[in-house]
Amino acid sequence: MIKKLIAIVVLILLLWGGYVAxxxxxxxxxxxxxxxxxxxxxxxxxxxxxxxxxxxxPLGLDNFTFLFNNIEVATLDKFEYSPLSKNLSxxxxxxxxxxxxxxxxxxxxxxxxxxxxxxxxNLLGLIHPKFTTSKVVQQDVLKNLNFTAEEKxxxxxxxxxxxxVSTEVSWMGAENNSWNFRVYVTLKNPNSIPLAVSNxxxxxxxxxxxxxxxxxxxxxxxxxxxxxxxxxxxxxxxDLLPGVLAEHIRNxxxxxxxxxxxxxxxxxxxxxxxxxxxxxxxxxxxIMESINQILREFSTRE
Length: 302
Known about the structure:
Number of strands: 17
CATH topology of the largest domain: Immunoglobulin-like
CATH architecture of the largest domain: Sandwich
Helix content: 10-25%
CATH superfamily of the largest domain: Immunoglobulins
């Protein structure tokens, strides 16, 4: 009797082991990610997985991390799984300040970066398979920050403000909670006399939050009916960006950036500080789309 019970147990274990091995080897999970809770300090990514069959296996997750430009920006916060279920989910928490640091590296690398996903499973507490996948991300965010504006009459129509023909933004590095940019503003003088632009400056807002300012200390003279390019030094407070990021994600990865331009003109011996224009641009990113593409590649690996 005891031998029969042992034989039955052994047979059950062999069948179970065979099923588990088959289920794991042939598993092609459908993975999909979406945003979870969002705050200034952290942002959650929820990853749901649907299996074609239950694994019937005690399964744990030792590690699930996202690295961007070699900075760990996200770690595992929660893992929900049942051996009898076809569904599992995990919550990955992003450290917003680490993400800002990784974005600095993204700009340092000419707006190019690498996302790396590391996964380490725990099977029966004995087997710990590891999986790693990566993707190069490149999106010219700064190119979208091109502001233009038409000339405006001043002094009762005697003169016109210069038109903003183009705005080109270049990354100059980061230090002391400040992102530094150089902005080249090309101005066109519609007047029949030269205009001395002794100061050009603008305030920058993202999603309604004041985040920085740009200015030029050396003035230029725009020839009559001519053009000149003015370099601006711009400083963005990176310590305020986690709040901007939270709003960006809440708005469906969409942000509104506003720049209020001011100039100081000297003409006929008179100096005047004038608000040239207030321009808004909509910035869209595809972070979650890139994450889901990585997960799809992970799901379909051989």
